[in-house]
Design a protein that fits this description.
Keywords: Cytoplasm, GTP-binding, Hydrolase, Magnesium, Metal-binding, Nucleotide-binding. Its main location: cytoplasm. Pfam families: DUF1967, GTP1_OBG, MMR_HSR1. It is a single chain. The chain is α/β, with parallel strands linked by helices. The chain folds into three domains: about 150 residues, Distorted Sandwich (Spo0b-associated Gtp-binding Protein, Chain: A), CATH 2.70.210.12; about 180 residues, 3-Layer(aba) Sandwich (Rossmann fold); about 80 residues, 2-Layer Sandwich (GMP Synthetase, Chain A, domain 3), CATH 3.30.300.350. Helices cover about 20% and strands about 25% of the residues. It contains nine helices and 20 strands. A hairpin with a 5-residue loop joins β10 and β11. About 10% of the residues have low confidence.
């Protein structure tokens, strides 16, 4: 199966079912009470991380996912069934972005982790909910809300404990093969590695026996100058390297390793400055090709970067035991790392929507606002606070629900906000397509 690490999909959660406007009917009971049941909730679209899948290729051919709607409520207080949730199984390491906003909406770094990427609509309440001492026969019910629709970009960012960072031909593939059980293609030309390759590295005791500790090591396509701008395989490289808990800069001692390290870090900085905060070390490779004095001099020059420097030869096996052991010692705890990642994503997506009251003296002409005697009336247009969403839920019964909505908005502080903004008795209040007259009544009603 071909390796695919980017995929665009469309998701649509189910709509909530409408609440029922119903009155009990039975023999010898001509006028029974309200008995409308609630509508069911719409199904969610949920991403789920599973193991055993290493590519998004399995989803190709299906780009649209739609969850079932919730059923309508019925009389006799019967509630509509909820729509079934739809699960989309993706590889561990998948990040989901909202294509319209660019925000991360899911970051799945553990097997079994789930995230709702499109939330089902809420079911509407039946008219039985709206009875009170003064409203004993409500002739309105609440409509269900639409399910969320999104265009989602899925990016697979390889989950590996350790990532090898280096320019083409720095010896990353050879190092992976020497340290692990992987068998990557190895040759003397750039971009031998076109897709990420994973290997497993076991910890070895003093007798050369494997211990019950291991980490995954990723050989990712070599970086080139301009990678952060998408040149070469740059973005593919950087997307995957951002997942690793430890970075190993693989430098070729026969080239200019100090300058290569500077350029590598510059590309990481341009793509995501937090990458330079990762735990990191330097593997100075191909030391078998130079004399010991030159290798020691280069080691001293690299020390200015404040990272551990290990002289290794992937070809001859020199320094590999020390590299393996130091990498094990430097690995951050996996669970704590995953928790930190989840907290970062949650904090990035907390958005508060304040109530905003806007005075509009000259409303648009297309039926929005009220005009009398050739002059525009004072119209107060309301945005935010969830008021418009509430209006929509009663759009089929607005005339019958007007009193209920007016009292509800007053209890939620809308009238006080209007009064403070300067509204006067008789002014028009506009919420979406719903318009009503403002009155200054200090007595609260049900």
């Amino acid at each position: 199966m071909a390796f695919r690490d980017v995929l665009n999909i469309e998701v649509a959660a189910g709509n909530g079912g409408d609440g029922s406007m119903s009155f009990h009917r039975a023999k010898f009971m001509e006028k029974g009470g309200p008995d409308g049941g609630h509508g069911g909730k719409g199904g969610n679209i949920i991403l789920r991380a599973i193991e055993g899948v290493e590519s998004l290729e399995r989803l190709v051919g299906r780009r649209k996912f739609k969850a079932p709607n919730g059923n309508y409520g019925e009389g006799r207080l019967r509630q509509g069934a909820d729509g079934e949730d739809i699960y989309i199984d993706v590889p561990v390491g998948t990040t989901a972005f909202d294509e319209d906003t660019g925000k991360v909406i899911a970051d799945l770094v553990r097997v079994g982790q789930e995230k709702v990427v499109a939330r089902g609509g809420l079911g509407g309440r039946g008219n039985s909910t709206f009875t009170s001492s003064t409203r004993q026969a409500p002739r309105f019910a609440e409509l269900g809300t639409p399910g969320q629709k999104r265009r989602v970009r899925l990016e697979l960012r390889l989950i590996a404990d350790v990532g090898l960072v280096g320019y083409p031909n720095a010896g990353k593939s050879s190092l992976l093969a020497a340290l692990s059980r992987a068998n990557p293609a190895i040759a003397d030309y750039p971009f031998t590695t076109l897709s990420p390759i994973l290997g497993v590295v076991d910890r070895i005791d003093s007798r050369g026996e494997p211990l019950d500790e291991r980490f995954t090591l990723a050989d990712i396509p070599g970086i080139i100058e301009g990678a952060s701008e998408g040149k070469g395989l740059g973005l593919e490289f950087l997307r995957h390297i951002s997942r690793t808990r430890v970075l190993v800069y693989v430098l070729d001692v026969t080239r200019d390793p100090v300058e290569e390290l500077r350029q590598l870090q510059a590309e990481l900085q341009a793509y995501d400055p937090t990458l330079l905060e990762n735990v990191a070390l330097i593997a100075l490779n191909k030391v078998e090709l130079v004399d010991a004095d030159l290798a020691a001099m280069v080691e001293d020059e690299l020390a200015q970067y404040g990272l551990p420097v290990l002289k290794v030869s992937a070809k001859e096996g020199e320094g590999l035991s020390e590299l393996r052991e130091i990498t094990f010692q430097m690995l951050p705890d996996r669970e704590l790392w995953a928790q930190d990642r989840a907290l970062e994503v949650e904090s990035e997506n907390v958005v508060a929507e304040p109530l905003r009251v806007v005075f509009r003296l000259d409303p648009p002409a297309q039926g929005v606002g009220i005009v009398s005697s050739g002059a525009p009336e004072r119209v107060w247009e309301i945005h935010g606070g969830g008021f418009e969403e509430r209006i929509v839920r009663f759009s089929r019964y607005l005339e019958d629900a007007a009193e209920y909505l007016g009292n509800l908005f007053k209890r939620q502080g809308l009238y006080n906000a209007l009064k403070k903004a300067g509204a006067r008795e008789g002014d028009t209040v506009e919420i979406g397509t719903f318009r009503f007259e403002y009155f200054n009544d200090e007595d609260e009603q049900d």
